[in-house]
Amino acid sequence: MLTITSQEMKDVLYALFKKYEFTESKANLLADVFTQNTLYGINSHGINRVPYFIETVKKGIVKIDKEAKKVEAFGNIERWDGNQGSGIINAVTCTNRAIALAKKGGMGLVALRNTNHWMRGGYYGWQAANENCIAILFTNTKPNMPAWGGKENRIGNNPFVVSIPRKEGHIVLDMALSQFSFGKINDYKLKGEQLPYLGGWDEDHNLSRNPEKILKTEKGLPVGYWKGSAFSIVLDMIATLLSAGNSTYKIGLSEYETAISQIYLCIYPEIFPDKALQQTLLNEIINYTHDTAPNKDGKMTYYPGERSLNAMKHNIKDGMNVNAEIWQKVLSILKEQ
């Protein structure tokens, strides 16, 4: 592992994205998001994904000159088309639009189609919370899990985000509907470690903790088994219906995961005149959750987003730990002719 500062990473990534002809503003935003994701301890959807992102640019999957545009509006509900632009840039745009609609009318929803991978969904949850909005965000994916009871992949691990603004630290749930995101599984592979719990199926359709075997089959294990399977299906349905975009089935017909569908729902709790009570109620729940004996020595309970917040504070102070092979790969891409 290497230890580097967030500024060093952002400078390198900005130069990389400029090299691939993103505008100055887009290159700066992309560099900031990938760096922030790493700063919050989510290397799997930060620096580790940069080589993959560049490959999608090279192959024309991500259109560097395209971005999301509004195509239909129904009061505080809108449909947008991502035009296969950068998933990160489109996600920031649609989150901002949902925030604006929420601050105007209490709630705002943007349904986005034809976009690309948004990398770390939690980034947009923090984005909304920083604007004092509750957010419920989700995306469909290519088929990468079997529906419960089946052998072949038919459903996506459809990442799901809920964020709640709080003065002492926002609450941000960011979870894939597989027991481990595939980026996290790759993290364990890079470290040469087994997963701590069963994470997917191997080629013989046996549940496994071996990251290489799971990455080879791309058969993730749904969280909660049949419950996660059902949750995946309904999220796919909502994203597809509201955006009039592609379902997991349609996405799976392409060689690459692209033209996916997403939902950005924001709620502005400050429409109610009891801001102080809202914070008291949140802290009451958190304090009650924290106030319990750990099941193992040295362990404790956390609210969603607490460990990411702690990681960010630590990484600002001491620098970010980055896989040396990944960092050298990023630098080599930057130096390519």
UniProtKB/TrEMBL annotation:
Keywords attached to this entry: Oxidoreductase
Gene3D superfamilies documented for this protein: 1.10.1530.10, Hypothetical oxidoreductase yiak, domain 2
Domain of life, per lineage: Bacteria
Cross-referenced InterPro entries: Mal/L-sulf/L-lact_DH-like_ah (IPR043144), Mal/L-sulf/L-lact_DH-like_NADP (IPR043143), Mal/L-sulfo/L-lacto_DH-like_sf (IPR036111), Malate/L-lactate_DH-like (IPR003767)
Protein EC: 1.1.1.130
Record keyword Transmembrane helix present: no
Coiled coil regions in record: none
Pfam family, one: Ldh_2
One Gene Ontology term of the molecular function aspect: 3-dehydro-L-gulonate 2-dehydrogenase activity
UniProt keyword Thylakoid, yes or no: no
Enzyme class: oxidoreductase
Name of the protein in its database record: 3-dehydro-L-gulonate 2-dehydrogenase
